[in-house]
Write a structure and sequence with these properties.
The protein is of the alpha/beta class. It contains ten helices and ten strands.
Amino acid sequence: MGGAGGQPESRTERSTMPVSNGGSLTLADDLVLTRMGYGAMQLAGPGVWGPPDDPAEAVAVLREAVELGVTHIDTSDFYGPETVNKTIREALHPYRDGLHLATKVGARRAPDKSWPHALSRDELIDAVHSNLKNLGLDVLDLVNLRVGEAEGPTPGSIAEPFSVLAELQQQGLIRHLGVSSVNSDQLTEAQRIAPVVAVQNLYNIARRDDDELVDRCAAEGIAYVSFFPLGGFSRLQSETLEKVAARIGLTPHTVALAWLLQRSPTMLLIPGTSSVAHLRENIAAADVELPADVLVELG
């Protein structure tokens, strides 16, 4: 997976990218990610806890994603916990050249299935080593530091935990760094410590609080990775989406994903599913280009 170690300067192919929503985004010489990736969280059991309900289907989904050309799989050792990473290893190891696994640290799973922060130095070091072990890797391609909540960032300094990851990067255990559930000030703070190639935050057609950060990432050649790309819709928003989708002969799901990809040239998506059929539908959305009037109607 990936190429040599080090910290290449982040860059993007915005100026030469095709009009199509699909394709890939080059963030470094050894980090080329398909804009439509795959989020592995749903491969855990109910409540993102325990092993998959259907282990064979989970393996099939992962293998199909790779066969369809996906080079960006998002995961974490706190999914399961550990069961998702172990499933990825079972399905895909040894990993195909060019396939990149992005993982997150900064949280853990408590016995009550909650997601408390795990941002101390020891917790972060342990998390990186646990991801390496369970994925069967010597180095992680991309590690995102999660510092806020799923619903949004929590103000405050992230220098201390991000510095720990920067040290692990210097030690050769991580190639590239990202941040998750952060605001613009926290991104700037992280960039003073080490290069940041990705921001992973909540953003979708219904939840656009991050509009300015999406545009900033595009301007700076940073990937903006939308999680929950289909969540948080009001009834009115859902009705508008359904009406538009019906008029152009697509599913609301496909329209919502295509809208995101047209929103920014550095937008990456990681929709999750435990179904091969649903995975294929997600991947197909990468080649849909919405007409201008649809974009106006969706706002």
